[in-house]
Amino acid sequence: MTRALVFPGQGSQFVGMGKALADAEPAAKLVFEEVNDALSENLSKIMWEGPEDDLRLTENTQPALMAVSMAVIRVLEAGGAKVEDIASHVAGHSLGEYSALAATGAFSLADTARLLKLRGQAMQRAVPVGEGAMAAILGLSMDDVNATCSEAADGEIVVAANDNADGQIVVSGHKGAVERAIEIAKNKGAKRGMLLPVSAPFHCPLMQPAADEMRAALADVEINRPVLPVLANVLAAPISEPDGIANLLVEQITGVVRWRESVGSMTSLGITQMVEVGAGKVLAGLTRRIDRDLKTANLQEPADIESFAETL
């Protein structure tokens, strides 16, 4: 069996995530302590006790999800299972790409935590609250969604932001344009169009100020060659060279998350199982929508990891 490890993005978080792992596994507990130290704050307290509104703040959500994913990786490693022996490729959805890079040694854990904290803050700063929006459009093709966005723009910005699965595409931009896109999509036969509960319009040109901030931040961080190829969101193709990683992460801030195509690329690379590392089961669900022949597994609780380790 040829595996890919995949790392979740925003929307997979929940209060309590990672707590059972930290309680059961010293290697996991150390990850949360290291992230707390890197950020000079008790992020794990927010993760495990809430309130949910604080966890949902982008600047907290992003490093928190990464911490859970890396806790799973460290537990696997403590049991003798190296990432490069488990899988042939890795990928992550949006912020999950940073988790994938940390898991493969491209970034240190502390640097990844600090980058994601800044990424969340920069994304929130880029557009005043209330000016931007995102919406899920269900039941239309990418071509139809692109046409919908062109028609809805009317001098504002609205673009496809996440190509998650067949018939499941997220659009992002100015709030008025996004609302117009929902109505136009319904007229084109969309099964559903709904605003998402997010605080900023991610993955669209309105995020350019955040991209500029991340370019400066990434220039100050050491990037190593990952031990496995990482499928970049904006390419839907594997990369390994450190020189290109920072540029692609900057592009990702304003570019489309090409998850449907990334899964297709994994299939073409011979991957037969997608193992979701960290909180939730969002990516497993998307995988089943994209390619039912791909096996899936989820690693977030101690029992999950134990069962998975027995298959190696």
> What is the averaged pLDDT score?
96
Helix and strand content put the structural class at: alpha/beta
User: What pattern of helices and strands is seen along the backbone?
Assistant: EHHHHHHEHHEHEEHEHEEHHEHEH
| Biggest sheet, spatial arrangement of strands | 8-7-2-1-9-10
Oligomer: single chain
Rg calc: 19 Å
Q: Could you give the distance between the termini?
A: 10 Å
- Give me the number of helical elements: 15
**Share of β-strand residues:** 15-25%
Number of β-strand runs = 10
| Relative helix content | 40-55%
Low-confidence stretches are none
- Largest sheet report: 6 strands, mixed
Based on Cα principal axes, name the global outline: globular
What does this 3D model show about the protein?
It is a single chain. With 312 residues, the protein is of the alpha/beta class. It is built from 15 helices and ten strands. The strands form two sheets. The protein has a six-stranded mixed sheet, with helices on both faces. The chain has a four-stranded antiparallel sheet with strand order 4-5-3-6. A hairpin with a 4-residue loop joins strand 7 (230-232) and strand 8. The chain starts with a strand and ends with a helix. The mean pLDDT is 96.
